[in-house]
Amino acid sequence: MQLLSMHLETYRKAKKITYWHDLQLRAAEQWDERIREEMESADILIMLLSPAYLGSDYIVDKEIPLALKHAAKIPATKTVAWVLVKPCRYEIFPEIAAYTVYPLKAAAPGETAARQRAVSEGPEEPDRIWTRLVSEILEK
After folding, report:
1. If you ran DSSP here, which 8-state letter would residue 110 be given?
2. What total of structural domains would you count in the chain?
3. What's the CATH number where 31 sits?
4. CA geometry: angle at 92 spanning 82 and 106, to 5°?
5. CB-based contacts of 104: which residues, under 8 Å, 6+ apart?
6. Among the listed residues 129, 94, 110, the one whose alpha carbon sits nearest the alpha carbon of residue 6
7. 126 vs 44, residue with greater confidence
8. What predicted TM-score, i.e. pTM, was given to this entire model?
9. What one-character DSSP code corresponds to residue 19?
10. DSSP assignment, residue 113?
11. Distance between CA atoms of 28 and 15, rounded to whole angstroms?
12. Which domain range does residue 27 map to?
């Protein structure tokens, strides 16, 4: 999250975007309501896939269904970007596996999407990967 935030800051400082993430929640804030409001008001949802993310009941029961609801509308009401940040078996969720998951480049020729390299394990420097991903997502 920290590396992504640093790359989003470039766009925020250039007044191209505003962004929010759950680390901005304050003590005693109604966090469930705030997360839902922020997701509903966003134009782009960047969903960071990892074992911790997919292991969270809240994320699987609340955030993923909300993101998928908007992505499935025709036309889609939001851009939903799925980013594989740590190796995990996201493909066991067919509703996620149906979408493009970044980074797009497989680990080696002939590898399947199931062995797609996560941002954290790519051969490139993480900043280079995040620069490319943020550009692809925000400049569509």
Report:
1. T
2. 1
3. 3.40.50
4. 55
5. none
6. 129
7. 44
8. 0.81
9. -
10. G
11. 30
12. 2-138
